């Protein structure tokens, strides 16, 4: 059985998971996470990331698709605007520079954007996974143990 795994949805899913992780990391100095810095944008990032994951699951299992994969570019664009705006213009209560969480979120959004383009565009990059060929095992015949044939003794080479 051959299974074809599209690279686009995989990138979107990994980027969404990475973005979810980045919300819990420090976004600004000194030790300010996205939960502490943002009022509503943190919840919006989490909801949009979960929506992207649901859309990706729908691409792998079309029978359970809740969100259409054509909505991925809109979801990713909204996340890109949120993350870029918060890196360029931090919230009013923050005095430090962006740190690990913000840059990780930016990388996640870039990966999601590439994945969304691959998912809805005509460009296809896929990994093909083939199942193991199950052949019937036959015990080997060893000529050294059986020196006779049906018509006479075996001929020595």
Your description of this structure?
- By secondary structure, the protein is mainly α.
- The chain has one domain (9-127).
- Helices cover 50% and strands 10% of the residues.
- The strands form two sheets. It has a two-stranded antiparallel ribbon. Strands 2-3 form a two-stranded antiparallel ribbon.
- The longest helix is centred in the last third of the chain and has 21 residues, at 100-120.
- The mean pLDDT is 82.
Per DSSP, the total helix count is: 5
Tell me the count of domains. Answer: 1
| Helix-and-strand structural type | mainly alpha
Element pattern in H and E = EHEEHHHHE
Query: How would you state the average pLDDT, rounded?
Result: 82
Instruction: Tell me how many strands there are.
Output: 4
Q: Report on the biggest sheet.
A: 2 strands, antiparallel
Strand content: 5-15%
Q: What general outline do the C-alpha atoms trace?
A: elongated
